[in-house]
Amino acid sequence: MNRDRTTMAEIADAAGVSLPTVSKVWNGRADVSERTRRRVEELMRKHGYRGRTPRQESGLIDVVFSEIDCSWEGEHIRGLEAAAFEADVRIVVSSLDHGEASRRRLLQRLRSGHTDGVILATETATAPLVAALSRLNVPLAALDPVARHADMPFVHSANFAGARAATAHLLALGHRRIGLITGLDQLVCSQARRDGFFAAHDEAGVSPDLDLVERGDYNTPSGITAGGRLLDRHHPPTAIFAMNDGMAIGVYEAARRRGVTVPDQLSVVGFDDLPGARWASPPLTTVRQPLREMGALAVRTVLGHADGGMLGTELVVRESTSPPL
Fold first, then answer.
1. 3-class secondary-structure state, position 64
2. What is the rounded CA–CA span in Å between residue 18 and residue 16?
3. 159-289: CATH superfamily
4. In CATH terms, is domain 1-55 a member of 1.10.260.40?
5. Spatial strand order in the sheet of 285-288
6. Is the whole-model pTM more than 0.90?
7. pLDDT per residue over 138-160, tens digit each?
């Protein structure tokens, strides 16, 4: 720590504590042990930490999405707003739709110091942006990040367990040819869901058919395309697990175009349990991800009231799955 400006992340690393703990000490919160408080304060004095004056903030939290185009972001925002109201702060929601220009504008605004912290959602939690914000001594938290950064707390859900439960449900119904439509490979959640899919097969003693794996991008059109490729196989699957609800609805459309009925001829499972899942025809069996609760936990984390963490998922069985013919 020999640069002109020491960051909060560097203080946390030197003290061997989490970033939220340093934030709590800096803001004078009581929920830190006296021994930890003394160690952190001594490091701040030693390295001349010059963060902003405690609680001189604007009562504002910035939430940054890569894009805002579906109810997935909407459910997170509902939870963010509820927790922000409870903490008597406001949120400003923005996206990086315009790439580098959006990133520069965000950093320019944050340099003015008018924020209590920044929540970076999914693909926005990139190493360059995290580093730039850390240099500004802005408290950070990641929401379902693309990658995990050692110096930033994050909030996510039990993606592995959810995917394993979804696949186990299909296996228990008697399906043995189960298609998989993956999400964006670079996302931590995609990797965990893929691992859960294969773990369920392993636990059931069933060999998965690797020829029944197709790649999607979490948007409905990719579900139509990937689902169509699976259904056009010489030996098509009797069930498909799509890694989110949007792609699962795409599978519905691919099946409709081919005269394949759900669930009589094809069982379909999604992931997220967005509001539209229960109104699909037929209602979609899916893994409920606590999106609102994740948003609320992200707010508490960036304010130093929590240390992030993983929230549980739950399989919701509806009418899109049945035993194979």
1. strand
2. 7
3. Response regulator (3.40.50.2300)
4. yes
5. 213-215, 178-182, 239-242, 267-272, 285-288, 314-316
6. no
7. 888 989 876 666 668 889 999 99
